[in-house]
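To assess whether the prediction recovers the assembly geometry, we first specified each molecular entity separately, as shown.
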Amino acid sequence: AQSVTQPDIHITVSEGASLELRCNYSYGATPYLFWYVQSPGQGLQLLLKYFSGDTLVQGIKGFEAEFKRSQSSFNLRKPSVHWSDAAEYFCAVGRQYGNQFYFGTGTSLTVIP
Amino acid sequence: GAGVSQSPSNKVTEKGKDVELRCDPISGHTALYWYRQSLGQGLEFLIYFQGNSAPDKSGLPSDRFSAERTGGSVSTLTIQRTQQEDSAVYLCASSLLAGNTDTQYFGPGTRLTVL
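The predicted structure of the complete assembly is given in tokenized form:
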């Protein structure tokens, strides 16, 4: 069965510091991988997605993620965090053929001045 | 342009009552999803609509849950005989195309509280 694990429930970083949010997936075939962000009072917004090709994917707001098949990971990174990045981040996996998406439980990011 | 809208934004109901949650997808989007987000949980897939095809209901947790999509646009999620464990945020998303490659656009959600 497909599943997504986000090991870190909550992360606190200082503004300007680098960020890495972890995501591990379990899926037997080629996964479609996504990162979404949910800001307070806002709907989920897509940051980036990976289907195939270059394993380093660039997204909006300066985020990037790297797909590592050997580690079944799709970690999200940002070199310098801004206070406005404080939000909940969700990793998701979709099947190549199908309709369902499987979301992780999310990582809450706090940014301190 | 308008995004995905959901109503009501908040709903408080008593155990055993029925509730209807509404989703207005982005105009022209053919695919529509419903998810449930419980406290401390990730998003749980509930149901998927694609055009005139039969919906994928595989995520509905019980037969108390049902959904319909009229005219390929507005969708209503109905929960009958609500239970306290139904308390959650119900999210709707739409995408222009079918399948898992297209970006899903999410609504702000309906927060359901069952007393």
